[in-house]
Hints:
The protein has one helix spanning 2-15, and strands at residues 52-59, 62-71, 76-79, 93-96, 109-118, 132-136. It is mainly beta. A hairpin with a 2-residue loop joins strand 1 and strand 2 (62-71). Strands 1-2-3-6-5-4 form a six-stranded antiparallel beta barrel. The chain has one helix and six strands, in the order H-E-E-E-E-E-E. The chain is globular, with a radius of gyration of 15 Å. Helices cover 8% and strands 24% of the residues. InterPro entries: Trypsin_dom, TRYPSIN_HIS. This is Peptidase S1 domain-containing protein. It holds the Pfam family Trypsin. It is found in: Secreted.
Amino acid sequence: MKILLTSMALVAYVFASPGSAHVRINNHVPMYSLPGKIVGGIEALPHEFPFQLSLQYIWENKRNHYCGASLINENWIVTAAHCVYEIDPELVTIVAGEHQLQNAEGNEQFRKVTKVIIHSEYNWPDAVNDIALLRLDAPLTLNTTSVGTISIPSSGYEASGKTNVFVMVF
């Protein structure tokens, strides 16, 4: 179980887009001050990572991305706890099937959040146990092109020193 939680924490950390955590929707000082770009990074192919989700809020009639998440199954997602800590879930919209935030491509699916489960030992200032699960208001429709689940290692899995890790941000 500890390996699974550690793996999910890594997934949440990697996909939560801390570089854009400066958005102040939860009244906390930003925990990260990373630049907005990955040095030497390349743009993913459209829907290359179908489990990647966008957490968004509406401000001045515009959707605003503020964190990333990963799709566990059609009803549940994992993200970093700092993305949803002390935030009214009704203000959060989950977008699946997105590739370019500024363009509507027709593959997007929008859901609201009905439940937030933050790790019981989450510690805001230290980012300890920075993981949360979110339940969606309706199942996402999985498909072979733009919306799919992330692979989670089985219990007891130990990564070798040569495991590839992808860092994705919108």
